[in-house]
Amino acid sequence: MESGVIDVAALPGGFDLQSTVESGQSYLWRREDGRMYETDDPYGGSDQYYTVVDGEVIRARQEGTELRWESTTDAEPYLFDLLRLDDDLEAIVAASPNDDLIREAYDTYRGLRLVRDPPFGCLVSFICSAQMRVSRIHSMVTALAEAYGTPVEFDGGTYYAFPTPEQLAGATEAELRDLGLGYRAPYVQRTAEMVADGEAHPADARDLPYEEARDYLTQFVGVGDKVADCVLLFSLDFLEAVPLDTWIRSTIEEYYPEADRGNYADTSRAIRQRFGAPASAADGGSSGSAGEGTYAGYVQTYVFHHLRTA
């Protein structure tokens, strides 16, 4: 076992592990006690979380300003990548629009960061997300990992990686329905086949211009504009993406009605402009958004988490 400590007080803008991994943007992290997404106002906790990436188990717990980790490998580079610890969050917050709702969200959940989940796992997670509560989505994704993922032994326990495209493509629709996926089962199975067969891969969207990248992702079965925006924001470094889910549509209706243009593409463009801010060195190396000049996705994530838990 390898272990270490990251001083999050030294990170610009700080860091909060619980709100980052329990804010509805990732379903590939799990709580060691099994109570993921059960907390009414997830922020500031010291529970232990884990994920499995590249066959490596990574466990992390935040105690005050220390992010303590244990792993099958040197996990620090993984944590900086997966939890975007290189982002200059302080500069991103300072550059965001100065209105009461946004400032309240930033002040309440200081240290919440976007995640950078592996593309295939992120894609399948959000295909499963249609018309589902965050806790139910997490349960479905966990069931997929335990049924089809590779087990990894670590510290006396068994941890399950999210299935590879090949592993998931081998599942039948009936088996996936039995895991609780319902009508999403054929979407997941066919999307896994597409990736396993080399027909398309979500990671290929990374270097495309934003709206082309969103269109590219909609070729996967069960993926519309909203799911595509989730994958762009929470996996592929497009920090300008603003997924228009029910919470954000309600936010637009109540707080920013001038951004409602009657269709997804135009409303998305309008709310990105409203939430956006000029690019700077705040982005810790992301490829998709640095040239686009906006961090609207950070605003979206804070507002989503703030209003969902209010």
Please explain how this structure is put together.
With 310 residues, this protein is an alpha+beta fold. It is built from 14 helices and seven strands. The strands form two sheets. The chain has a five-stranded antiparallel sheet. The protein has a two-stranded antiparallel sheet with strand order 6-7. Strand 3 (48-53) and strand 4 form a beta hairpin. Helix 4 (100-108) crosses helix 14 (296-309), helix 10 crosses helix 11 (225-234) and helix 13 packs across helix 14. The longest helix is centred in the middle third of the chain and has 15 residues, at 134-148. The radius of gyration is 18 Å and the shape is globular. The model is unreliable at 278-293 (pLDDT under 50).
Please tag this protein with its features:
single chain, 310 residues, alpha+beta, 5-stranded antiparallel sheet, two-stranded antiparallel sheet, 7 strands
Major sheet size, sense and barrel closure: 5 strands, antiparallel
Q: Outline the low-pLDDT stretches.
A: 278-293
Average pLDDT confidence is 93
What structural category do the secondary elements indicate? Answer: alpha+beta
Following the backbone from N to C, one meets helices and strands in this order, namely EHEEEEHHHHHEEHHHHHHHH
Residues in helices, as a percent range: 40-55%
C-alpha-based Rg, rounded? 18 Å
Number of strands: 7
What is the distance, rounded to the nearest whole angstrom, between the alpha carbons of the first and last residues?
A: 39 Å
- Count helical runs: 14
Strand order of the main beta sheet, please?
1-5-4-3-2
Share in β-strands: 5-15%
Shape: globular
